[in-house]
Amino acid sequence: xxxxxxxxxxxxxxxxxxxxxxxxxxxxxxxxxxxxxxxxxxxxxxxxxxxxxxxxxxxxxxxxxxxxxxxxxxxxxxxxxxxxxxxxxxxxxxxxxxxxxxxxxxxxxxxxxxxxxxxxxxxxxxxxxxxxxxxxxxxxxxxxxxxxxxxxxxxxxxxxxxxxxxxxxxxxxxxxxxxxxxxxxxxxxxxxxxxxxxxxxxxxxxxxxxxxxxxxxxxxxxxxxxxxxxxxxxxxxxxxxxxxxxxxxxxxxxxxxxxxxxxxxxxxxxxxxxxxxxxxxxxxxxxxxxxxxxxx
Length: 296
Prior knowledge:
By secondary structure, this protein is an alpha+beta fold. 66% of the residues lie in helices and 7% in strands. Strand 3 and strand 4 (121-126) form a beta hairpin.
């Protein structure tokens, strides 16, 4: 059951990333067809914009993310012995280098991992997590975060963020181009086929940000399921993570978390309730995660 879940989550992640990439290319094609009478040109521009965004975001320092979340780094074992040893042990089991360790002064229990690859990773936990969880539960949480590091989830989320940002920029460009009357196709199109093509391009551009948000959130939720399963693979103890998730769920929202980093945390730090649908949730429901863990 454990390895079936891991394989299933990896397949779903692949589907989401393929869909994300196709969405970017479709937006580029729509822009090219609408403004320059060449969908090929639009695809090239979209690919260049996306590549630039990826390069910028992947090169960003871990220190920026930690600073945004008011995290302080601990340099040696004496600052937090239990946390240090657990991170060290889980890194050894996961066969990745020991990451940098940070603590966030916040009473709400939570944690996240960041970094471009296992060689440049960092793990942060709140003081509330250290105070409320016992060693078994804390091990489950650290196993979850080390799974994100081992599975390159942080880089994957960075790529997804770059794709979303690129889509946002392309859509913003199209709005400004329309405002200044730059659409060549409005003059060049003739007949019903041209009008239908224009409508399709416009609808695609207008719906692109919504589709990008849904894809990004779906990717985030899927990686949480995968990290849960991978944590059990590392610790061989699903009960530790189950009990930890229950305590994390039964807590107040964080005060120090940065909204732009909310998807990184093991659980939504702001405890947002989805009124209509889980499509825009950064994390799957805790109850669903626990149900999957209980089957392992």
